[in-house]
């Protein structure tokens, strides 16, 4: 199988997150005139409007892991003030997560699928608490 380019991985994640949010009752919009902004999708439900940065998550060590900053030219740039939440697609699980930006650290985040091996409970973000549903 051919290696997927970062653009293709991102496009698939955006489609998956949009599909998951639509199934969960959100209206989803793309920023047509700002295609290269830091906002990938806009999701609305009732009076809630969320600017989303879409990320691809990977299952590793019992958690869905994803980056919470961009990394261009070895410079990490935070999304705070520019987006409200992360829409995370985990292809291994076929699930979409909606994670408020204030709920995660500055560089990367983990959504636990199973208890930590060291028994830590404090400060753990459980994946089920952020799961929107399947794609």
What does this structure look like?
This protein has 135 residues and is mainly β. The chain has one domain: Trna Endonuclease, Chain: A, domain 1 (3-Layer(aba) Sandwich). It has one helix and eleven strands, in the order H-E-E-E-E-E-E-E-E-E-E-E. The strands form three sheets. Strands 1-2-3-8-9-11 form a six-stranded mixed sheet, with helices on one face. A three-stranded antiparallel sheet has the order 4-5-10, with no helix packed on it. A two-stranded antiparallel sheet has the order 6-7. A hairpin with a 2-residue loop joins strand 4 and strand 5. It is globular, with a radius of gyration of 15 Å.
Poorly predicted runs are none
Strand order of the largest sheet: 1-2-3-8-9-11
CATH architecture: 3-Layer(aba) Sandwich
Number of helices: 1
Which series of helices and strands comes N to C? HEEEEEEEEEEE
Instruction: Give the helix/strand class.
Output: mainly beta
State the distance separating the first and last CA atoms. Answer: 23 Å
Q: How many domain regions?
A: 1
**Binned strand content:** 35-45%
Biggest sheet overview: 6 strands, mixed
User: What is the mean pLDDT?
Assistant: 92
Shape: globular
Any idea what the radius of gyration is? 15 Å
Quick structural overview:
This protein has 135 residues and is mostly beta strands. It has one helix spanning 6-23, and strands at 27-29, 41-45, 48-56, 58-60, 63-67, 69-72, 75-78, 85-90, 95-100, 108-112, 131-134.
């Amino acid at each position: 199988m051919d290696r997927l380019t970062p653009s293709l991985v991102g496009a698939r994640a955006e489609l998956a997150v949009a599909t998951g949010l639509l199934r969960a009752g959100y209206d989803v919009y793309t920023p047509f005139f700002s295609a290269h902004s830091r906002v990938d999708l806009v999701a609305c439900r009732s009076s809630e409007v969320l600017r989303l940065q879409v990320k691809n998550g990977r299952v590793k060590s019992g958690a869905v892991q994803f980056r919470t900053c961009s990394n261009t030219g070895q410079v990490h740039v935070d999304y705070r003030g520019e987006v409200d939440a992360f829409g995370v697609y985990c292809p291994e699980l076929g699930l979409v997560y909606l994670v408020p930006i204030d709920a995660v650290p500055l560089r990367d985040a983990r959504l636990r699928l199973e208890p930590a091996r060291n028994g830590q409970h404090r400060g753990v973000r459980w994946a089920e608490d952020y799961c929107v549903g399947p794609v």
